[in-house]
User: Which sequence fits this backbone?
């Protein structure tokens, strides 16, 4: 009887693996998988890629970052698939697109494929950088829709229509270089609904929850194959008050890590953390203690409540932090990487981390204090490379 039970279990597992779309990153329970094998990542953020690629004379910078990142084992890049209104906009006004900017995004996707880097593409910003929610609300105001503040982004039907149009336009875009629709391109690992959603008029998390409950199925109706994340920082909300103790002091932003990620069309959970910014005035030891608590609580919740993989999609240490040195940054990153590795060892729920952010040489205007130029930072590059090697080795040992 025991043998029969094992055989049935094996057949069920194999059937589930066979249903996974070849070449696309998928989830299997709490694991990320690729072609039936565990997919653990070491990755990076380079939000600026489309903007820089808009100038053909600057495109080499995109290529350089992909090439150098790939050379040290980085396999996932998170970047923006939005720029709403204003300078160098992708979406000039609702439904009106700048073809030159779209071709810049085509180039980013094509270069990622060339260097075997997968992309997480965010579809709108919470903040007014690159337009974001404020621009959508302004567009609605211009059309005389009844809106009063930026949080109407989540509830106003006109604005929700603008957003859905953008989602459809990006997902169905046919890349002018590869001739592949974005929704059919396995180079794209995942979509994110919004970068760092926040809502000041409703701290409970319910307003954002209702928005995700509407938008996640909409994305899946167009593209059922790619993974989908919310794009959250990980702050806890009202659905599990005991967990609020893990939020940095004073952080009430209107999200709920648990309920927002329980929505079935959301495939994986995300967290962000910048302890130098979140815990102003606390020393490195206290900051790392926070990081350990932050990662542990979210790993536990992802494994036991959400039953979905977890990605640490933004973390970094800024040159603007008191007492900063490259050595201090390397130690911070090494500590974060070690924790990610240790969690990933335990069943693969913690699928990896993406450092903020990589630049090429000569990109000072994009520097925000967190920037890493691999060619100029050999020690940091070495820390990243070692983590890549460890995650690759771990993939072979999970099963």
Assistant:
């Amino acid at each position: 009887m025991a043998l029969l039970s094992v055989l049935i279990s094996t057949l069920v597992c194999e059937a589930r693996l066979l249903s996974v779309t070849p070449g696309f990153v998928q989830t299997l329970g709490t694991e990320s998988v690729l072609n039936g094998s565990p997919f653990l990542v070491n990755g990076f953020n380079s939000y600026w890629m489309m903007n820089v690629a808009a100038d053909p004379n600057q495109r080499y910078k995109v290529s350089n970052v992909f090439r150098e990142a790939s050379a040290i084992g980085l396999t996932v890049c998170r970047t923006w698939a939005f720029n709403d209104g204003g300078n160098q906009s992708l979406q000039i006004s609702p439904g009106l697109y700048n073809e030159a900017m779209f071709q810049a995004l085509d180039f980013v996707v094509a270069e990622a494929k060339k260097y075997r880097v997968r992309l997480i593409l965010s579809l709108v910003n919470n903040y007014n950088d690159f337009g974001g929610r404020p621009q959508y609300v302004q567009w609605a105001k211009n059309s005389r829709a009844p809106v009063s503040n930026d949080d109407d982004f989540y509830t106003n039907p006109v604005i929700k229509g603008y957003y859905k149009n953008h989602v459809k336009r990006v997902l169905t875009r046919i890349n002018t270089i590869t001739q592949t629709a974005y929704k059919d391109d396995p180079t794209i690992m995942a979509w994110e609904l919004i970068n760092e959603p926040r809502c000041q008029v409703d701290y409970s998390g319910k307003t954002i929850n209702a928005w995700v409950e509407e938008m996640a199925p909409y994305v899946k109706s167009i593209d059922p194959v790619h993974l989908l994340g919310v794009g959250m920082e990980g702050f806890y909300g009202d659905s599990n008050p005991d967990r609020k103790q893990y939020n940095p002091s004073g952080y009430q932003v209107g999200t709920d890590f648990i309920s927002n990620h329980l929505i079935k069309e959301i495939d994986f959970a995300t967290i962000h953390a910048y302890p130098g910014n979140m815990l102003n005035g606390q020393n490195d030891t206290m900051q790392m203690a926070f990081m350990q608590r932050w990662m542990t609580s979210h790993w536990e919740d992802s494994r036991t409540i959400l039953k979905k993989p977890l990605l640490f999609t933004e973390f970094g240490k800024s040159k603007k932090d008191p007492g900063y040195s490259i050595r201090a940054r390397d130690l911070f990153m090494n500590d974060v990487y070690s924790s990610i590795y240790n969690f990933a060892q335990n069943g693969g729920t913690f699928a990896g981390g993406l450092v903020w952010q990589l630049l090429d040489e000569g990109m000072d205007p994009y520097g925000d204090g967190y920037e890493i130029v691999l060619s100029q930072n050999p020690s940091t590059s070495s820390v990243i490379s070692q983590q890549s090697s460890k995650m690759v080795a771990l993939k072979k040992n999970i099963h």
About this structure: The longest helix spans residues 284-306. The first strand starts at residue 25 and ends at 28. The radius of gyration is 20 Å. The mean pLDDT is 92.
